[in-house]
Every structure is written in C-alpha cells, then in structure tokens.
C-alpha cells in the first residue's frame, strides 16, 4: 500500500511560487522524492482554493499557471469542483479592495460558506 500525502495550502503555496525560495526548493524536492518512491499526493480543494484566491488577488499569473499544472498532476484521485476552482476568481474584486488592518487575520476556508 502506498503512502498518501495530503498537501496543505502552505506547502502548495511554496511549491507553486515561481520565485522559489530555499524553503520552496526543499519542499519541491521532498515532494518529488516521495512521488518517485511511489507515494500518492492529494491536493484538497480547500487548499487549492486558498492558494488560488491569493494568487488571483495579487494577479500572479505565473503562480496560477504553476498551481494549475500541479493540480493537473495530483488531482486525479479526487474530483475537482468547478465551484471551488472558480470561487477564487469571483472573490478577487472583493479581496483586492480590502485593506488589512494591523490586527486583522487572513480569511480562511470559513469565507466559502
């Protein structure tokens, strides 16, 4: 039985960032090592949503392309929801108008509901 790796938004963001930091490169190598050894990676829709929403807000087209490629590689095990995939696009205007305050916390998955 193969190992299943569930990628969270933090790791997904590091791996899909076009400007790979040392930490991002280490994460990408770690993931590739596990995949080549037979492990299976799964990208939950909520992690895809969180990363995609931020990339769209910041208008980072290269990051979106890298995310799409990664999702295409590792999402064969689960169905992707059009609603979640497009929700980042539809929330972009709202997020781009918001100015975070000093004490504000980032919106997370609870903002979908």
Strand order of the largest sheet: 1-2
- Major sheet size, sense and barrel closure: 2 strands, parallel
Shape: globular
What is the SS-derived class?
mainly alpha
Number of domains: 1
Strand content: 5-15%
Number of E strands? 2
Range of helix content: 55-70%
Give me the Rg, rounded.
Answer: 15 Å
Unreliable segments of 5+ consecutive residues = none
Counting DSSP H or I runs of 4 or more residues, the number of helices is: 5
| Ends distance | 36 Å
Q: Please, what is the average pLDDT?
A: 76
Element-level helix/strand string:
EHHEHHH
Structure characterization notes:
With 113 residues, this protein is mainly alpha-helical. The protein has one domain. It has 5 helices and 2 strands. The protein has a two-stranded parallel ribbon. The radius of gyration is 15 Å and the shape is globular. The N and C termini lie far apart (36 Å).
């Amino acid at each position: 039985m193969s190992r299943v790796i569930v990628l969270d938004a933090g790791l997904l963001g590091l791996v899909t960032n076009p400007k790979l930091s040392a930490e991002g490169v280490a994460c990408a190598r770690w993931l590739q090592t596990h995949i080549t050894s037979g492990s299976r990676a799964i990208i939950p829709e909520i992690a895809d949503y969180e990363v995609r929403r931020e990339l769209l807000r910041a208008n980072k087209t290269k990051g979106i392309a890298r995310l799409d490629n990664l999702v295409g590689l590792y999402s064969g095990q689960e169905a992707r929801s059009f609603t979640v995939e497009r929700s980042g696009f539809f929330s972009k205007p709202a997020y781009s108008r918001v100015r975070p305050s000093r004490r504000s916390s980032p919106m997370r998955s609870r903002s979908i509901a």
